[in-house]
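The data are quoted verbatim for reference:
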Amino acid sequence: SRLCKGYLTKKESDGVLHQMTWPPQSPDLNQLRCAKCCHNVIPDPSLARFMCAELTRGYFLEHNEAKYTERRERVYTCMRIPRELEKLMIFGFFLCLDAFLYVFTLLPLRVLLALLHLLTLPCCNLGGLRLLQPAQVCDIMKGLIMVLCYSMMHYVDYSMMYHLIRGQSVIKLYIIYNMLQVADRLFSSFGQDILDALYWTATEPKERKRDSIGVIPHFIMAVFYVFLHAILIMVQASTLNVAFNSHNKSLLTIMMSNNFVEIKGSVFKKFEKNNLFQMSNSDIKERFTSYVLLLIVCLRNMEQFSWSPDHLWVLLPDVFMVIASEIAVDVIKHAFITKFNEITADVYSEYRASLAFDLISCRQKNACTDYSDSVARRMGFIPLPLAVLLIRVVMSSVNVQGALSYSCVSLFYMGMVTLKVLNSIVLLGKSCVYVKRANMEDKLFEKPPTAAPGKTPRDPWSERSPSTPSCTSSSVTTQPTPTVIPTPQAETVQSVGDGTEGTELKHRTPKKDLLDVDRFTICGNRID
């Protein structure tokens, strides 16, 4: 018989072994023709031929090179997320630590200096000048709030609260803990507005027409807020303490599994870069708060066991387990959010540069806010309630009696001041490096615009790109000059297309860069 060269063959009645080319030119199998003699060739529909085709067929990935390259880059991005995320978390942790240590170390000294300045002013040569600078007024307000709230916390019995919580069932405690987490976020959101309103009401220029209810009502609201928020955090610490001291650790396991429920509520939602920045700041704040709560739990347990080192080794495995679950949940959540929303791992470097910009800008001569208040607005971390609770727990756990004890307290305070200064110096140096890498240095020299009569000034950072070249800046420790705090203003946006013009809604949310992202004012709003 004769043979046609090819792949698929079929022997016809004329004794010719026919061949067809593959893939066929015609989609109809009945129209398959031999490439040599143009005879019709119909493949034999046998099982053996089908199995042979399945085992020997091939494919070429290079035909879709772009798709597979993108998939490989996604894998590499997920592998980079833990490292980049932890860099941001560590930097943010030390930012929160710096603001937290400020309350214990430099704030009392600033309050003493402000009171000394107030007492030494001559009463006859005041003229029309202020008695105190705005920053000094805010420091005195913070000091008074701390003293009053600490005095009110003496009427709250921690032991009674602990035993009251311990008598509840596991499921009820689980529900209570979830409710406390939601309440903590709501308190932080509204509490920063209360404190900002108090600071502005107390330092507002006298020549302006005031439309506020007065300094005293705002001060009373701020005191009650800090007191209630401190009690809320105390209940959280008591619930965590009950979980640590339970025999079967079931409550602690349930509370840790609650962190993984957070993945379900976050991973499958659409996130943009600014929304992810908000969530990253919230994760930094929650992680730092968890560390302080664990410290409170350890202090209370060590006090009950007479500061025995053996009991500390009993607590450490549970502490490490809680910390490991927090880190694992954050890594998994951010890895899948960046994967589903096609966000690169380099975005965390931009977030770190934005936080560094806040640190440097608050040390400029024309700074509009204190550093701790800037951290509170950006991350939602308000150090005053947490500081009040920690002072209350430490004072009830440690007995200070005798000259030696007071000497130890003085040495401990000096150590905290040293830690605060060293932490601030390192953070400031790192922040300068991060800002320089992001080319954001020239924004440090731009002054906020003054408001025209009857008009509201626009945000100076709202329409600037996050990368512009410039030179470095040095920190200034002098008193800031009074400036007008800019606020964003809704505008009418004109849309120009292919020969068509239209006016969109006037109250549409404007596009913001990372420097405009406030932790609370746009929380929950979709950023275009």
Summary: Residues 67-445 form one domain. The chain is about 60% helix and 5% strand. The chain has one domain: 67-445.
